[in-house]
Amino acid sequence: MEDNLPVNVREYQELAKKALPKMHYDYINGGAEDEYTLRENIAAYGRILLRPRVLIDVSKIDMSTSLLGYNMPSPIIVAPTGAHKLANPEGEVATARAAAACNTIMMLSFSSSCRIEEVASSCDAIRFYQLYVYKRRDVSATLVRRAESLGFRAIVLTVDTPVLGRREADIRNKMIAPPLSNLEGLMSLDDFDDAEGGSKLERFSRETLDPSLSWKDVEWLKSITSLPILLKGIVTAEDGNE
Ligand SMILES: Cc1cc2nc3c(=O)[nH]c(=O)nc-3n(C[C@H](O)[C@H](O)[C@H](O)COP(=O)(O)O)c2cc1C
């Protein structure tokens, strides 16, 4: 087994494709709208060429940095992604342990398949909580308060998903919205599981996410939490200057 360990991310991806049900692999692997941006993101990294200098003693390399005052060994943190139990029975608890072992920060997704409480008690680490703003503001507010009381250090407001992208593989696979245990008891989750065609995940998102999301909601968020707020998904200088 040891001999066959993957040596790069692509090889992990091949193993994941074999191990996961097609619907779940496609959800993790897929993108929206002709998957143009997905391809372009990968190509963009390929266009960055380094100009390495030589003969400069690289026996000690320090990539450490800090974010919101928290020190980390490298400028790499764990982005929020939903429903880790689709890939691992321990879900976000396993991800939290891995992030803690690397001394890096994990952003726990609003669409986590583990409860915030389980992740918080799984290990000691700096964690941020990612927020979607639902039409039901009370649901979003409750989760912010729960994350705050469980020691999360910042709220990461996702601002590029007022509607879910048209994820083509999910439409073909009639992707089922994964169970979101943090929403249990806060809203009914059964109403979305009907026979309508296409992606049920997309339907769930359409019913729940608030497409009117705007700067006034950043003010609202400030009014309900004393945690620092990070905006995730700004891609233009114009928005950065707001
Ligand atoms: C399977 C999957 C689930 C995701 N779930 C979330 C989520 O719940 N919340 C969020 O803010 N972003 C989510 N994202 C977006 C990622 O956090 C990230 O912004 C995006 O994948 C772009 O980074 P990349 O080019 O490194 O993949 C998700 C991405 C993927 C691929």
Short description:
With 242 residues, the chain is of the alpha/beta class. It is 37% helix and 9% strand. The protein is globular, with a radius of gyration of 19 Å.
Write the layout of secondary structure elements.
Layout: H1 9-19, H2 22-29, H3 36-47, E1 65-67, E2 70-72, H4 92-101, E3 106-108, H5 116-122, E4 127-131, H6 137-149, E5 155-158, H7 168-173, H8 200-208, H9 215-224, E6 229-232, H10 237-240
Parallel strand pairs: 3-4, 4-5, 5-6
Antiparallel strand pairs: 1-2
The structure holds flavin mononucleotide (FMN).
State the distance separating the first and last CA atoms. Answer: 53 Å
Oligomeric state: single chain
User: What is the CATH domain class of the domain at 77-240?
Assistant: Alpha Beta
Q: C-alpha Rg, in Å?
A: 19 Å
Mean pLDDT across all amino acids: 94
Silhouette: globular
The CATH architecture of the domain at 77-240 comes to Alpha-Beta Barrel
Q: Number of DSSP helices? A: 10
